[in-house]
Design brief:
4-stranded antiparallel beta sheet; 16 helices
Length: 374
């Protein structure tokens, strides 16, 4: 939640006279304890391993931990991992699918691709090579592991620093040599990256962003699904280790009941459209990922390239954030594809990028909660 949304948020609190009711010494103490638990959870989650000289079974579990730090829609973490003799499977967890925003599981498989890329980058630091393929029989990604010389990379080092930063950026342009690195990271394996940095292009994309966001904000099922994944305070974020924590967008923390009660008064279509317009106009550019085929294997490939782009951006101290509304609403997606000149190919993912501040971090479930027992 950005400055404009935060002002609306605080205005509603003041107008409703509930700020005092939500305060008090007991609430302050509870929130302070929750903040301490959250800080400890962040430190334990977003970190590098203490050692990269580990027996294979131990290393495999740590590779899964790195995989869980990947980008994913609504921070649902829709994955399960199965460890085999010399392989790791990244599989969909359909209990965490987003039926409204992602009815065909496109983003779910893209999320598996993001997790796969993290795992591939991390494996090299553990003296392993992870050969990733889409395993149709297993229904997800298979990563076969083999011994290899250690090759710790800048992309691997960026894994614990990467975040989707939902804030206003400072408008600075990205140097041409860095754009070339981003383009190389985001293209390949049946995925094409389109970069847009001209102001006219960004304004054109804004039109599709507003159209998609407006359609979603008018959709009661979308709003209900979104609310179910919101976490309004430290204790709720720590208890679930998932979802969209309000603090990660700069919003105040609130008791859960209060946050849900006033959500509809604060998050409005016009207000969100204005926020997205300000965010996009502050960005250096937009990245659009388009895969060759509209099927899960290529959705996963798009996720891998998107994650690699995000890691490369992080290594260059460039922020990024998803603005997927133009590809999430089918009617808008078709128009957006025509704008992109994509032909019959499906645009998969959309990101804005630029320079801006770091925000508080989301959490991830521990490894033992995402491992699938054989």
């Amino acid at each position: 939640m950005e400055d404009a949304a935060r002002r609306r948020f605080l205005g509603v609190l003041a107008g409703a006279g509930v700020a005092a009711a939500a305060g008090g010494a007991a609430a302050f103490v509870a929130n302070s304890r929750g903040a301490a638990a959250y800080d400890a959870a962040v430190e334990g989650t977003w970190r590098h391993s203490d050692s990269f000289e580990l027996p294979l079974p131990v290393a495999q579990k740590d590779l899964v931990r790195y995989a869980t730090l990947a980008a994913n829609s609504h921070n649902t973490q829709p994955w399960r991992f199965r460890i085999a003799d010399r392989a790791i499977f990244a599989l969909p967890d359909l209990t965490r699918r987003l039926a409204s925003v992602d009815p065909d599981n496109h983003h779910l498989f893209a999320s598996l691709g993001c997790a796969t890329e993290n795992l591939v980058q991390a494996a090299a630091a553990f003296r392993l090579r992870a050969n990733a393929t889409f395993d149709a029989a297993a229904g997800g990604m298979r990563l076969d592991l083999e011994q290899a010389p250690q090759a710790r990379s800048q992309l691997f080092d960026a894994i614990p620093r990467r975040q989707s930063t939902r804030s206003i950026y400072d408008g600075r342009a990205v140097p041409a040599e860095h754009l070339r690195l981003l383009e190389a990271a985001g293209s390949g394996d049946g995925v094409k990256l389109l970069l847009f940095t001209e102001r006219k292009q960004i304004e054109d994309i804004l039109g599709y962003l507003i159209a998609g966001n407006s359609a979603q904000m008018d959709d009661a099922a979308f709003i209900s699904e979104l609310k179910s994944w919101l976490r309004f305070n430290f204790a709720e974020a720590v208890a679930t280790d998932d979802g969209l924590f309000s603090k990660t967008t700069g919003a105040p923390t609130l008791p859960s009941w209060l946050g849900r009660l006033i959500f509809g008064l604060v998050v409005t279509k016009d207000g969100e459209n204005k926020t997205y317009a300000a965010q996009l106009r502050s960005s250096a550019g937009v990245a659009v990922f388009i895969s060759d085929k509209n099927e899960p294997a290529f959705w996963s490939a798009a996720g891998r390239r998107c994650q690699r782009f995000a890691l490369q951006a992080t290594a260059l101290d460039i922020r990024h954030c998803f603005i997927n509304q133009p590809v999430e609403v089918p009617a808008v997606r078709g128009q957006f594809a025509n704008f992109l000149g994509a032909g019959d190919r499906r645009p998969d993912l959309v990101m804005r990028f630029g320079y801006g501040p770091e925000l508080p971090r989301s959490l991830r479930r521990p490894v033992d909660q995402v491992l699938q027992l054989v």
